[in-house]
Model the fold of this input.
Amino acid sequence: MSSPLHSIARFTLIEARRARVVAVTLALCVLAAGAAEFAASLALTDTASYRTATYASVLRTGLVGLVALVAVAGVVRERDERWLELTLSRPVSRGTWYAGRLLGFAALALALALAACAPLLLFAPPACVAAWGASLATELTLVAAASLSFAVTLRSVTASLATVAGFYVLSRVMHAIVLMSTGPGADPSAWTTPVVAKLVAGLALVLPALDRFTLSVWLETPPTMMTLGAVLVQGVVYTSLLAAIGLFDFHRGEV
Amino acid sequence: MTAAPGDRAVARVPRGIVALLGVSFVLQVGLAALHERGPAAARPLPAPPSHATLAVLAAGEPRVLARALMLWLQSFDYQPGISIPYRELDYARLEAWLERVLALDPAFQYPLLAASRLYAEVPDPDRQRRMLAFVARHFDADPTRRWPWMAHAVYVAKHRLGDLRYALELATRLARAPAEANVPGWARQMPVFVLEDLGEVEAAKVLLGGLLDSGEVTDAHERRFLARRLAELEARTATAPAR
Done:
């Protein structure tokens, strides 16, 4: 007989299947492939890199959105339909429920990353695809952890999705924002410039460096073990942080 | 972490979770700080995508994309832990990026400003000429808005490149802008001063005399200044030894 943790994780995957995640993922792959061929047809040169880069970036963005939607909608629905109350009335601790949900979403992230990698094996070396896929799985797990945390805290699909979207976009562009806030374009005579630079730098410390994740260039030149390792470590650390935040709020809030 | 009415006390949160929160937060800040101090390695400027690709990416907002791209391009030389001198930027790719941005929003002046006042300041004649040629190539399409950059291009050609012939060519094109372009008098007068520096005093006199007679210069102070200048030129030709 499986433990509550594994049961909750398994039901998370069943819930995702019932939400037609398989069909949506296939549709995303087809859409990404179409966009990739379109981009490659417009390119005068380097068509192969246009194809793989477009496919990778479209699919990455699409899967991030899909994971966030599945996680947020599932958790909010479980709370609103009082299934969460029923689950916690059993000998299942809040921590077990949360960990089970997170484990289920992590398994979903891994499955989606594998599905995304399959077509890439036709166009890129296996080592490159493996590195890219590992980073994608880490990124999707991180997004799932954020979605779970925000859904538990905010208790609303709209607010949670908007927060996840803002968090994701900010995490991806934060590096560029930090450079711009301290670069030659910033007005050194304005008193707001150093204040903004400090605020931006502070924010960058508490956001994950998603600009270093799942780079399309890895499909041509695989990353070094140190680079990939840094990405995986960042993923684990930030997922833990998000889980801790979500658990903290979950233990404080009434179901 | 929100606190709604009816929420339980913080003390009810298991210590393990609080510890996980603290440890993971410290690890995250440490990781982020390490990333900032990582070894610097300059990235080359990538080649721009095609016009068609950018049009698709703009998703109906080419002006927004143009502005975002210029901010990114402007900051490109400033990478983490390293500042790339302009002379190490691939100026062919830089020019291509500026062309793309201008194509996205032809009314956007930033690419021409950047070309003439930023990227043409590099102490590399080939790179400077490439930027000046970019400005000159796009001047005729919208002289009303683009004359300041063309005027600065004349200045760069004359004083930075030291190529008076090229400065004269650019100044002449600036002076020949249609009247409705509202190019100010001092900019239209630039060929006169370049000719003077070239030693072609006779040509400068003819041009200046023509300008005063044409009635284009209406400001009294400006007419007096130009008349005095013409008188100086005539005095120079009168005292110069015959060739």
The first strand of chain B starts at residue 78 and ends at 79.
